Amino acid sequence: AAAASTPKGSLYPRPRADQHDVRRYFVTRPGAFDQAVEDLKAHVVETMGETAHSFWLLTEIDHWNNEKERVVVVTDLALLICKYDFIMLKCLQLQRVPLNDVDRICLGSFTFPERSLDRREGEGLRIYWGKQQEPDFLSRWNPFSTEVPYATFMEHPVKSSSQRFNDICEISTFVSQLVPAVQNVRMKDPARTDGVRVEYEPLLIDTYTGLMSFIGNRNKLGYSLARGSVGF
């Protein structure tokens, strides 16, 4: 199913970024994102034998509401979610999700349990894969779990700093690239007759206390960021 048409720029509004604050993010340094692209292109070809078609700079929201800077790549056969160190210019962690496993994409506002202490405003995107739509009990309560069967994203804080970052951080454009890529893989698989569903619904982040995410998010601990006179 194709995503419903939405007026450009209406989904994820963000005021124009403060340029002094933006320069604290190492991803904005000249050549930093380009180096990430080159590193990941080479890795995809050498280790996976695939071609990388598009690169995106997004913020992942984990199941404990922690923000994490990510480079997201769409290849022939997979969605790659990369933790990239923009200070040392190297990939630290790479999660590979086969496109054939992606079965639902949801866009909507973030919601929290009524008594949650750490909430966030705004809208985002959640990509589900596999048959299991929700994490099991152990994964849900483990802040370090990698078994959660979905990934949640929002736009990166530097999105409005320039046209280039606006393009690579735009979630609606990312979805318009991801959906056809998934559909193309599905069409080539005789065992799959269903398409990927694109839905608009609230995105629940099921956290209650949120003390660690409260501290981490307000100090931007999930980003490659200059912190005073010392780089993090």
UniProtKB/TrEMBL annotation:
Pfam families: hSac2. InterPro entries: hSac2 (IPR034753), Inositol_phosphatase (IPR022158), TPRG1-like (IPR040242). It comes from the Eukaryota. Residues 27-212 form the HSac2 domain. Belongs to the TPRG1 family. This is Tumor protein p63-regulated gene 1 protein. The gene is TPRG1.
